[in-house]
Specification:
By secondary structure, the protein is of the alpha+beta class. 49% of the residues lie in helices and 13% in strands. The protein has helices at residues 9-12, 17-43, 60-69, 89-99, 105-108, 115-125, 128-139, 217-222, 270-305, 318-347, 354-379, 390-399, 407-419, 423-440; strands spanning 144-148, 165-168, 174-184, 191-199, 210-216, 226-231, 244-253, 308-309, 312-313. Strands 2-3-7-6 form a four-stranded antiparallel β-sheet. A hairpin with a 5-residue loop joins strand 2 (165-168) and strand 3. Helix 4 (89-99) runs antiparallel to helix 10 (318-347), helix 6 packs antiparallel against helix 7 (128-139) and helix 10 runs antiparallel to helix 11 (354-379). The radius of gyration is 24 Å and the shape is globular. The termini are far apart. Its cofactor is FAD. Residues 268-416 form the Acyl-CoA dehydrogenase/oxidase C-terminal domain. It comes from Candida metapsilosis. Belongs to the acyl-CoA dehydrogenase family. Homodimer.
């Protein structure tokens, strides 16, 4: 099927011919190369604890080479960045829909988290030195990165709560102390740079008390004062060799020769940078989630075509067909929400699209999670095993209701914005009442 038939009609004329070609190439690449490669990827992950976190599945490099040949590389860098192919957020969102159908596709196209958000930050705020040392190798897929923000024992959904300190000593160097965790990507042997959210001040303006430091990961670990303690499991998955790691800083001193290049943008701009990073990233996550939901429906349909339940094929049972139709509606609803948010970012910016982003971020993981859960139920015991992709997709999707801000935080923000509009209701009905007498005389 052509991707033109799968793009909602209201958005079709907003996709350029170049974007449409890239979306079609993405779909074909995922179906022909990445989905078959997923099984090989998991088979190539070492089961030996001594090597599990030191080796990267070999299948990734041929996939990356093929993606570059097709021009499917760094597509997430929108028209606002000269370093990327300059697709719109809407166009890349439609590509991410297909990338989300399997595990290997995002990394194969150099569009996997957390590198995407980190590259956007470095592209937008990085100095010449930071871009040469870290951004370009990331753009080339030669190294990987981690975003080190979330903290153990801290409500990290509010970035202002971050308490890991970076205090300047007598030599003017930052000294870091704190306990971070769920640093995605920190377990990868190719991880060369950490972007670390730290508290650098205790001033009255809470919005200027934090900074993002650019840290050479290997130097920090070798110093013995920054320890990658362990990979944390996500519903039992350790996601090797990527990992979501706990990191402890104990008087880690940033070398003098790194100053001032150790700071991204400027001291005190950490909160601003975090907000900048999260907007488009939430769109990427949601579109990949939609892709996983569509893949789940394909799995479910295939199962139903070959399953007899009480003497009747599952694909003819009314209860199954009704649930399938409802799931298709849910996916389309989410697709419209997310694409609308992406388009709003394109025509304005992420700040102006906060309401649309919040709606998409709240609804999509929840709706897709219910579809994935149903898929597990359709497969029964097989659905919770490693013999289908559904269990791991469910686990990944469930984390989205926490990652990049939990449901409650987005609902609260959305509710406050809507509550601010309540006075308009009084104005509306006052106007109605004032017109009643005039209308009655017509």
């Amino acid at each position: 099927m052509s991707v033109k038939d799968e793009i909602p009609a209201i958005f079709l004329d907003k996709v350029s011919p170049r974007g449409l070609e890239a979306i079609q190439k993405t779909k074909d690449f995922v179906e022909q190369y990445c989905i078959p490669a997923d099984r090989i990827f998991h088979e190539q992950i070492s089961l030996d604890p001594a090597t599990r976190w030191k080796q990267v599945p070999e299948i990734l490099e041929p996939l990356k080479k093929k993606a570059r040949e097709l021009g499917l590389w760094n597509m997430f860098l929108s028209k606002h960045y000269k370093e990327g192919p300059q697709f719109t957020n809407l166009e890349y969102g439609l590509m991410a829909r297909y990338l989300g159908r399997c595990h290997t596709a995002p990394e194969a196209t150099n569009t996997s988290a957390p590198d995407t958000g980190n590259m956007e930050l470095l592209a937008k705020y990085g100095s010449k030195v930071q871009k040469e040392k870290y951004l370009q190798p990331l753009l080339d897929g030669k190294i990987r990165s981690a975003f080190v923000m979330t903290e153990k024992g801290i409500s990290s959904s509010n970035a202002l709560n971050i308490s890991t300190t970076a205090v300047k000593n007598s030599r003017g160097n930052f000294v870091l102390n704190g306990n971070k965790w769920f640093a995605s990507g920190a377990g990868d042997p190719r991880c060369a740079v950490w972007l670390v959210m730290c508290k650098t001040d205790n001033g009255k303006d809470r919005l200027k008390n934090h900074s993002v430091l650019v840290i050479d990961a290997k130097h920090a670990i070798e110093s013995g004062k920054a320890e990658v303690v362990r990979p944390l499991h996500v519903f039992g998955y350790d996601d090797a060799p990527h990992g979501h790691c706990e990191i402890i800083f104990k008087d880690y001193e940033v070398p003098s020769e790194w100053m001032p290049e150790a700071v991204l943008a400027d001291v005190g701009r950490g909160f601003e940078l975090i907000q900048s990073r999260l907007g488009p990233g939430r769109i990427h996550h949601c579109m990949r989630a939609i892709g996983s939901g569509e893949f789940a429906l394909l799995r479910i349909a295939h199962r139903a075509n070959h399953r007899i339940i009480f003497g009747q094929p599952m694909n003819r049972r009314e209860g199954f067909l009704m649930q399938y139709a409802k799931s298709r509606i849910e996916i389309h609803k989410c697709l419209m929400l997310v694409l609308n948010a992406a388009h709003k970012i394109d025509i304005s910016n992420a700040k102006e699209a906060q309401t649309e982003i919040a709606m998409a971020k709240i609804e999509t993981p929840k709706a897709i999670g219910e579809i994935l859960d149903w898929g597990v139920q359709v497969f029964g015991a097989e659905g919770v095993s490693q013999d289908t992709e559904l269990a791991q997709m469910w686990a990944w999707n469930r984390t989205l209701r926490i990652a990049d801000g939990p449901d409650e935080a987005h609902l609260s923000q959305l509710a406050r914005k809507e509550a601010a509009k309540f006075p308009k209701a009084d104005t509306f009905f006052n106007n109605v009442e004032s017109r009643v007498e005039a209308i009655s005389k017509l």
